[in-house]
């Protein structure tokens, strides 16, 4: 990766142009618009040629690291390989050219995809029905919580405005609950990293709307007491929400519906191999148990008696509408392509191979890094920094040094239960050779921490830029380009 | 058992299990209660080869019909240049995640900074976030921003001229978030200033959301709106189609505090409704209330110019339930579509797109009226989409158009239909539409 310093605005020169359009043979012209409705001064967008644009963005791409560049063990993000066939299918003009409001009779293929994907997700998770409308994991959480609130309201149970969230939960859980108008009640984890059932019991009363659980949790540990927790929460009239961010290790092994969950979301950009795109677009389908199906958001895809599909609006039972149209359709296409490629045969291996990789890395490094919970993990695990921290080398330093060696860093300083958390998730698409190489490098870094701590504390050294001044960025924010001549 | 996405050989698995000290893959699930392990066959199709998958999707695509698109209402059939898919498919962009490690993410961070700059420039605002899911959810976030910025106020006003799906999504968020909504009706096709003033006088208004171009396609004249809203210490929020902002008066010029909308019109394919890309932008006074990711400029230790996710103290991974929003991701790759599109088009290209769309839409409008089957619904300035009142049953008209591969005349409200034309519509397309309508009339 080499440093490239331009912004597209800095390539601009008056008179250059990067587009071609048909000539204008129309009689009507914008000059007819009333002066009071017209823009006073044209926007200062760059004026660049097409080759300038292509080279600029190609240069920018070369300062980036993706799953295709190398190992990306970012915990809780499931950075698995993104198959290329997915991209071709989603770009097919027979899908990409469809307007979302086209009559149902002209989009039967698109509606069929929506329906078939929801059925496949039901089969994989054991939930009765899915909506594919939510755009992302956090959006799915919000939608799922709306379903839960709508359910309680429909029963006239208006007191249930509190939701239980474990202290190990992803930050989006409490944030989604707050947006949904719920009050958050935190349940503690035990020493072994699992939800403390004794701490949970007294929290359960008739004000509890439900509990949000991630299983395996953010430490990569399976919540063994899940069935007892489900029974307790259901007994008090609450519902169980499953945060599907960590579904990957259960793929082909365990279905959330069978553990007693009533509502869940999946991250198609994690478990179902759609590319993360630098932060999105993702998709966060929400599945529910049979007694909640009517509360899923509108619009819904329904099947008529003759087998044709149509789009139905809100019949008054839905939690409402949560998306402009029907979700990130292009992402749904990719996910279904993945499901057809793995099929019912290979899905059985997704979870086990992801768990195999995680345990292999954990066992190969536990003599160099602190392992707070020394049990079998699922798809990911958490170290609490180096075993020997005598030279003051931190988790941040280890992460930055990995960048020098051509790896992406793991998730760091999350979960908040440990001060020096390093969360590693290898996924099932990494070979033993890649994992061995990573293990060797982590061991080498642990040795460097003792022999040459300064090199680590100032790492990275070989990346396009080095450590950034984040304090100034936040104190004196520069959030847009300004040039004296054009702005 | 070899499968293309799994690199493990039987021997690899054996060696790895040995290192872990267990006998089998099943042993890795010894902590899971045995009665929740799913032992039945999954109700899924058999695994397909790539060739078979390709054939399958060809079959599915053939059940869709590509139509001559004369519909707007929040999704626009603008032309997307060939450069865009070429850049988008670079896997360094495509397969990266949120730029948590800025040292190896300068590509993503730089284009987001460029995107923020371009959206700010188009809307006439100061600070833009790194993008939202879509226009409708961006509007819902704008509503929550107004509530957070004006503490203690309880109401947000919505113009009934907003797109139907935007109103529905904002209502859903408001219902659960505990925001009281008020509605400002349209009179003669535009948001009523008189009704706005009356609603404001009732007090407690945190903000007002008005469309720049409304559901009827009419360009709103917002004279006096900002003063009226600001006099009550509320925020003026505008829902815009950013493509139009190259030529029409910007929300910034109207005195808006927050602007939201969908940037699908800037190079993003229709794709049956998504992925699109919402935007949210505001004055600098409100930046710390802005939800979502934000990229800022800084320097690295060697003094090189560099970019980084900033103002993170607002966000859910730090603030948890006290965050400005639950938003975690953005639509980064879709923001790249927009950035590359705007780089290619520049202000002149975007003006040309609007000129061509304006010319085609007005020709379509006049041609449809000339058939004698429509009446004007309103007589107000519009850009690329407009509303007519058909003099025949709407369903019959739609059926006649659909049968000939034309998608238009979508009902906005009972008895009123939408038409839209972009730079992709040619004179012969419109003549074809007119011939179909004349045949229908006969």
Oligomer: heterodimer
Number of helices of chain B: 14
Unreliable runs of chain B: none
Strands ordered across the widest β-sheet of chain A: 1-7-6-5-4-2-3
First-last Cα distance of chain A: 32 Å
Task: Please give the domain count of chain A.
Answer: 3
Shape of chain A: globular
Strand arrangement across the biggest beta sheet of chain B: 2-10-9-8-7-3-4
| CATH top level assignment of the largest domain in chain B | Alpha Beta
Helicity of chain B, as a percent range: 25-40%
Q: Which chains have the largest interface? A: A-B, 203 and 205 residues
Q: Which architecture of the largest domain in chain A would the CATH scheme give at its second level?
A: 3-Layer(aba) Sandwich
Average pLDDT value of chain A?
96
Overall radius of gyration of chain B = 26 Å
What's the CATH topology label of the largest domain in chain A? Aspartate Aminotransferase, domain 2
Q: Proportion of β residues of chain A?
A: 5-15%
Structural class of chain B, by secondary structure, is alpha/beta
Quick synopsis:
The complex is a heterodimer of chains A (487) and B (442). Chain A is α/β, with parallel strands linked by helices.
Please write out the topology:
The complex is a heterodimer of chains A (487) and B (442).
Chain A: H1 50-61, H2 84-90, H3 93-96, H4 108-125, E1 129-131, H5 137-154, E2 162-166, H6 172-179, E3 183-187, H7 197-200, E4 208-213, H8 226-235, E5 239-244, E6 263-266, E7 286-288, E8 300-303, E9 309-312, H9 329-365, E10 381-384, H10 395-404, E11 411-412, E12 421-424, H11 432-451, H12 453-457, H13 470-475
Parallel strand pairs in A: 2-3, 2-4, 4-5, 5-6
Antiparallel strand pairs in A: 1-7, 6-7, 8-9, 10-12, 11-12
Chain B: H1 10-20, H2 50-61, E1 68-69, H3 83-88, H4 91-94, H5 106-123, E2 127-128, H6 135-149, E3 155-159, H7 164-177, E4 180-184, E5 186-187, E6 190-191, H8 193-201, E7 205-211, H9 225-231, E8 235-240, H10 251-254, E9 258-262, E10 278-282, E11 295-299, E12 305-309, H11 316-319, H12 332-370, E13 374-376, E14 385-390, H13 394-403, E15 406-407, E16 410-413, E17 416-420, H14 427-441
Helix pairs in contact in B: 5-12, 6-7, 12-14
